[in-house]
Amino acid sequence: MSTTLFLILCLNGLQYGMLLFLIAAGLTLVFGVMGFINLAHGVQYMVGAYLVYAYVQLTGSFIVAVFLSLGTALIFGLLLEFFVFRHLYTRSHLDQVLATFGIIIFLNELAKVVFGPATLSVAPPEFLAGSIQLTETLRYPVYRFATIIAGLAVAAVLYFTISYTRIGMLIRAGATSAEMVSALGVNIQRLFMIVFGVGAMLAGFAGVIAAPIFAIEPGMGDNILIVTFVVIIIGGIGSIGGAFIAALLVGLIDTLGRSFATEILSTLFSPSFANQIGPALASMLIYILMAAILVFRPKGLLPAKGVA
């Protein structure tokens, strides 16, 4: 195993973990505080990617496009909450699943109508377009470093907000007992709206910073939503800290596993058998990890206080 390759894979895993965290942070709050199953959360990641593409075409500036995309993603999330989701809070989980699945289909088709079915791409800004020398044989793209730093910065802001502010106190209390918070005179409807809007903006931000790295296409949020649910189950529903730790674990295990599973199996079995089993095993690693965590920590690694 090359040290240079291992470092690159670790950095890629860290970057992927940061993207997962941005999506999972919003989803775990919505799920933990509101008890609402929002399958359309992954679509908001797709919306963020398409928004930054559209705004870059309109303004010619990636930085301006980022801020416009964040504002639009927040407004989009608030509108969805006001017109659709708040009418589903008291409905069964099956109704929530069916309704949000319908939104997935609608928005994926709308993306095809507006932008076409072809994959799109966005170039990173010029000041982040180069690479930096880490070792004598390793250069790493500046933009990927920037995504890692952006994810860490958002994680720090969320941690401070959830741990040390009044709104954070209400969110933590809501994750434990929304009924008690409402009984104490807190406008739980407004709290839900704030949580949902912030969650949508975080998912949109993940799509924004992923746009220069991954292809922008309809349905791009569907697969990542499944992995995001794995993250919040491993970390603990309603826990920002748990989502952060779990996202890093999943990002690193998935990235390293896909690269080294076949190589490791080839030391134990024949090359042909390893080539057949390796890719399948690599794609299963994060689910094996989730199953193991559920056996020993049914509430997740760092469950929200009051949930453990």
Automatic annotation (TrEMBL):
Subcellular localization: Cell membrane
Keyword Transmembrane: yes
CDD domains: TM_PBP1_LivH_like
Pfam families the record matches: BPD_transp_2
Lineage: Bacteria, Pseudomonadati, Pseudomonadota, Alphaproteobacteria, Rhodobacterales
Membrane-spanning parts: 62-85, 97-122, 142-162, 194-216, 223-253, 273-296
Membrane topology according to the record: Multi-pass membrane protein
Principal location: membrane
Species of the source: Sulfitobacter dubius
Alphabetical keyword list: Amino-acid transport, Cell membrane, Membrane, Transmembrane, Transmembrane helix, Transport
Protein name: High-affinity branched-chain amino acid transport system permease protein LivH
Family: Belongs to the binding-protein-dependent transport system permease family. LivHM subfamily.
